[in-house]
Amino acid sequence: MxxxxxxxxxxxxxxxxxxxxxxxxxxxxxxxxxFITAFKSAEEYGSTSVMMFPQKWDxxxxxxxxxxxxxxxxxxxxxIVLVAVVxxxxxxxxxxxxxxxxxxxxxxxxIRKLFLFATLLPGVAxxxxxxxxxxxxxxxDSLYGYIILMMGTDVISIxxxxxxxxxxxxxxxESAIIDGASYFRIYWNIILPLLKPATVTCMILKGVSTYxxxxxxxxxxxxxxxxxxxxxxxxxxxxLGSQYNLICAGVIISMVPAxxxxxxxxxxxxxxxxxxxxxx
Length: 280
Description:
By secondary structure, the protein is mainly α. Helix content is about 75%, strand content about 0%. The protein is globular.
């Protein structure tokens, strides 16, 4: 009996670590291939395997990609968009969640269901209507128009904030009202500081999706000086072929800011994600 349980435990442990190593391997292989391709010349890339190390480790591809794709300006645009969109969506989503959670009024449940229904609609299917609205408001080819578009209702963030607010006692609101606090002051000084784990979680989700967003950025930001990082990487693609060594170099450059932010804020990121996982 003991041997049978011992054998089962060994097999289970082996399968668990085997699956982890297997998926880690297939996740890291594309990154490894992208990294070594970024150091190859166009001739070497065309004549060697994508998994072979370059003959010469040269940074000229990174310099060329940064200059030709105007990635300096693209990083500035992406930073402006990222800060504005993440900050605006956090405020809008948390305020909507505050109203839906704290105020019971006719149609409250219907609004929540409509938000859920909106997540089932594919964004591409609504782009014709969205484009007409953006065009009528003169928001096309303008950074502020793209920011307003991306700052739109974030349904996932709303539900995350609602979930957290359900664990905040209503007695805090009642005590503040007795002391003469307005609803906005209750939200700003009491509720929002208690939503720090939810805020971090929403910032991660919204920040990653905004930084990597390509479709809307390519559709609405048409001027060269308005390109974001995601669009700038497509400078080296065309009908006559793609320069994958420069594309890979650009990808590595675009990963550096995200990697630095992760290293500096990993404690807050982990705490926010784990706190968000146990609420409900």
